[in-house]
Amino acid sequence: MLSHLDENNQPNMVDIGGKLSTRREAVAQALVHLPSEVRAEFRDGDIQGKKGSVFQTAIIAGIMACKKTSELIPLCHPLALDDCKIRIRLNDNRDAVIECRVICHQKTGVEMEALTGATVAALTLYDMCKALSHDIVIGEIRLLEKTGGKSAPARHPAD
């Protein structure tokens, strides 16, 4: 049975009242294919556009999204986050790899916060670079790791 459906198949917020708060951590990744027109604008590991630093703006947007996940995803519990870090790098193919790591001490995990942060950072990168090319492709978004809680740890290899 899915955790967000009750016995009558109706939407249901998971009752975490009886759970203990533990350290929870999740890491998510988004891959963004950057066409040559975008890659050509990189200087010193970033792009400076009319709206400012592309990577720095994407990082701030991703962190803000992590903090607002419960407002964006129905039935997510609002969580006070202890830490959120977003890193953006270019891989060997010169695609952007966005990694979002979120930590809290709560009764439920932070997978959705990490996935939301990586996704919004990718969308922000797209928004800031679309004047250079509309051929930017936001690719795979996935959970890489989670710790804490009864189903942890879980690890998936990064690209």
Key terms:
single chain; 159 residues; alpha+beta; Alpha-Beta Plaits; five-stranded antiparallel sheet; two-stranded antiparallel sheet; 4 helices; 7 strands; elongated
What does this protein structure show overall?
This protein is of the alpha+beta class. It has a single domain (22-149), classed as 2-Layer Sandwich (Alpha-Beta Plaits), CATH 3.30.70.640. Helix content is 26%, strand content 30%. The protein is built from four helices and seven strands, in the order βαββααββαββ. It has helices spanning 36-39, 54-67, 69-72, 111-129; strands at 22-33, 48-49, 52-53, 83-90, 96-106, 137-147, 154-155. Strands 4-5-1-6-7 form a five-stranded antiparallel sheet. The protein has a two-stranded antiparallel sheet with strand order 2-3. Strand 4 (83-90) and strand 5 form a beta hairpin. Helix 2 (54-67) packs antiparallel against helix 4. The radius of gyration is 17 Å and the shape is elongated. The mean pLDDT is 88.
